[in-house]
From TrEMBL:
PANTHER family: MOTA_TOLQ_EXBB PROTON CHANNEL DOMAIN-CONTAINING PROTEIN, PROTEIN TOLQ. Belongs to the exbB/tolQ family. This is Outer membrane transport energization protein ExbB. It is a multi-pass membrane protein. Residues 1-19 form the signal peptide. It is found in: Cell membrane; Membrane.
């Protein structure tokens, strides 16, 4: 009301000011004219004020009418406010009564909707990490929206929404037992996306171009594993893609990718060897040298053994084998006595022994040194591990496990080299001893024959 009254007064004042004429005073010539102009201006201003007061009093009835209208409007708004407050209180009471009625009528349905909300939420997270969702995208989002809707007490699920949860679970169970082939976008190891045919094995694994795929978390897309498992698993994946109706062997991960992720993280043979460091490379180098020597000795002793066997069947000595060279001593000294011949034969045998047993001692040394070097690498690795524990503490078990694993690699390499070297040394030493034994046996026979002839 006060706002309307002030507005009316301001309107009247502005109207009066606008109606007043503006008189431009002339420039005074002297002080008398200036005084006269000031007296006239004061008079005209007083006259204008009187006229304004008269007009304001004449409009008093209009201002009273505006005031009455403002008061009437205020009273009307107050009555409307009281009416709305009354309706609000009545609606609150009615809403509380309806809520109690709904709670009573729902009864066991409330428990049903609670279980439905939990099942929908669990199924949504399960379907989000399922390979089946790659072929049928959008299933997890639908169940997530339903679970969020059920979280509000004022919203209930319809029959169709309840059936959608059941159908989604039934579809997941059905697709788990199928091997399906379809086309989808695959992110390659270099980051490029290509649409290609893929094979899905239930809800467990997915392969494309003979390589295993992984599900990208939070999406319905797949990507190639940056690090693939062993070759025997990749070959089974290729067989699966080429198979039509015949059953094939396939490396299945029942955990949906967890075991496969751990499998590809395991270091391969080359990485295991690299963990051995410098000591490991030295052990392998010694093993390679020992293997080459053993191979040369094996071939040589096999050839010499064959020639000795052929010499046993011949009476004429041949110079291409140790036995022939030993037998040639008898013909070289036909008239010497038995003792001298025995010494000459012993000399010939001793001359042949170094050729027969050459480098066998080096193989034996490698079989002894290799495990010692492996132990050296293990001790060095354990020292580094304890130094890391001193710096970083024992809060991370992987730090200790990784250091100990690397330290034990050298021991494994030492044993891997020492065991075959020991077996090769035993085998080659036996062969060389057999040849020497044949030489000694034939030399003893020659001596016995000469002795009998002398008698």
């Amino acid at each position: 009301m006060m706002k309307h009254l002030l507005g009316a007064v301001a309107l009247l004042l502005s109207t009066s000011l606008a109606a007043a004429p503006i008189v431009s005073p002339q420039e005074p010539i002297n002080l008398d004219q200036l005084l006269q102009q000031l007296q006239q201006g004061q008079f005209s201003q007083s006259k204008e004020n009187q006229e304004r007061e008269a007009r304001f009093q004449a409009q008093a009835d209009q201002q009273a009418q505006i005031l009455r209208e403002a008061i009437a409007k205020r009273d009307q708004l107050e009555r409307l406010s009281e009416q709305l407050e009354t309706n609000f209180e009545q609606n609150e009471v009615a809403l509380a009564n309806l809520t109690d009625t709904l709670t009573q009528r729902m009864g066991s349905l409330r428990e049903l909707f609670g279980v439905l909300q939990q099942v929908a939420g669990d199924a949504s997270s399960k379907l989000q990490s399922s390979y089946v969702s790659v072929e049928y995208p959008g299933r997890s989002d639908q169940l997530a929206d339903l679970a969020q809707k059920m979280g509000s007490a004022s919203k209930l699920a319809s029959i169709e929404e309840i059936e959608s949860v059941w159908l989604a679970l039934l579809q997941e169970m059905t697709e788990t037992g199928k091997v399906s082939q379809f086309e989808t976008s695959v992110t390659l190891a270099n980051g490029e996306k290509v649409v290609k045919p893929v094979v899905r094995v239930g809800a467990f694994n997915m392969v494309a171009d003979g390589k295993y795929l992984e599900l990208v978390p939070g999406t319905d897309t797949v990507a190639e594993l940056v690090r693939q498992p062993a070759a025997r698993y990749l070959s089974s994946a290729e067989q699966l893609q080429r198979a039509q109706q015949n059953p094939v062997t396939f490396g299945l991960d029942p955990t949906g990718g967890a075991i496969l992720g751990l499998l590809v993280q395991a270091p391969d043979l080359q990485e295991r060897i690299d963990q051995g460091g410098t000591v490991g490379y030295i052990i392998l180098a010694l093993g390679a040298i020992g293997l080459l020597i053993a191979l040369e000795r094996f071939v040589t002793l096999t050839l010499v053994g064959g020639k000795v066997k052929r010499q046993l069947k011949q009476s004429a000595p041949q110079q291409d084998n140790p036995l022939g060279r030993v037998m040639a001593v008898q013909q070289k000294y036909p008239e010497v006595d038995t003792e001298t011949l025995e010494l000459k034969l012993s000399e010939a045998i001793l001359r042949e022994i170094p050729k027969i047993s050459r480098n066998l001692t080096f193989i034996k040394i490698i079989s002894v040194v290799a495990p010692l070097m492996g132990l050296l690498g293990t001790v060095t690795g354990m020292i580094n591990t304890f130094q890391a524990i001193t710096l970083f503490g024992t809060g991370d078990p992987k730090l200790m496990a990784g250091g100990i694993s690397q330290a034990l690699v050298t021991t494994v390499l030492g044993l891997v080299v020492a065991i075959p070297m020991t077996l090769l040394f035993a085998t080659l030493n036996t062969r060389s001893r057999n040849i020497v034994h044949v030489l000694q046996e034939q030399a003893s026979g020659i001596i016995a024959e000469r002795s009998e002839r002398g008698q």
